[in-house]
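GH16 domain-containing protein, pasting as requested.
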Amino acid sequence: MTGTISSYISLLPLLSTVFTTLGASSPIEKRAEAPVKTGFNRVWWENWGHKDGIPHNWVYNLGTSYPGQVEQWGTGEIQTYTNKTENIRVVNKVLYITPKKVKDAKGKITWTSARLEGRKGNQWACADGKKMLVEASIKLGSASEAQQKGIWPAFWMLGDVFRDRGYKGWPEVGEIDIMESVNGLRQTWGLVHCGIYDGQKPIRGPCNEPDGKGGFVKGVGRGIWNTYGIEIDRTSKDWKTEKITWLINGVRRHSISGSEVNNATAWDFLAHRKMFILLNVAVGGGFPNGVEAAQTPFSTTIDGDNVGMQVDWVGVYQQI
Ligand SMILES: *[C@@H]1O[C@H](CO)[C@@H](O)[C@H](O)[C@H]1NC(C)=O
Ligand SMILES: *[C@@H]1O[C@H](CO)[C@@H](O)[C@H](O)[C@H]1NC(C)=O
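Structure tokens follow.
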């Protein structure tokens, strides 16, 4: 999700990386509460039922950057994030993040949307020798592809040291994109970002920046509830054979091991250290532009709940 403005051309090779097709799997029902899981402690969960509302567990990321940091959130995305109910609200214990299109008197179009990051204190690491699951039940907007060009919902994590360092140090701090989808495609990506990247020089580092490493899944239904998750598996006790696996509706889809990142420091940031969760819908920017091979959003792109993201629950689970 984080990246550099010049990054979208080099995102294209992603289209040739490992992928699987979802095929016929039964979509998960809305259930309003993160389920308990055998063999795991549910260490934290969000059901959007707190009396003090969204800020109970989350902070709003507002505007077009972290204070004083790289503009357009580092990815070239064009929306301004707000905390207005037209962009973010909870209805019947479901979170709605909704992009809105605003036309000014001169006909100039601007976009607003919303982004949450877990409140400080809500960050977790997988214990040595154990597994950790981070999962959410999400419904992606079901408008047509033409109507969703440039719309970029995401459920992801960043290393907690990122905020300790004043929101500096990407990609070294580590990023796990649990679910990203762009342009209304029935396709979701799961990637890691880590190590080093210098947009001016061809330094791609252990996570092949700015593309990241990981995979994607085709055939993902939109307008239905699916659970998207990652499992960090440290049961092998050797960092090279530890794994991060992406799951949809509990089914393993693709994974990355320490040896594929092949840098102990970078892997430590990704798989051993505390991370916090983010939920957002961006508009425009490197990823949708790169996948579309064109500048997004298009004039056909619509706003509203049909291009937004709904989140039923989020859960973090530590293996017992
Ligand atoms: C929304 O953001 C504004 C700053 O733009 C702030 O003053 C206000 O308290 C925030 N409202 C909520 C509900 O967080
Ligand atoms: C591992 O990645 C770090 C950046 O996270 C880099 O500074 C270091 O040189 C890399 N080590 C090796 C052996 O490539």
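Note for the archive: Residues 55, 60, 62, 83 surround 2-acetamido-2-deoxy-beta-D-glucopyranose (ligand 1) (CB under 6 Å).
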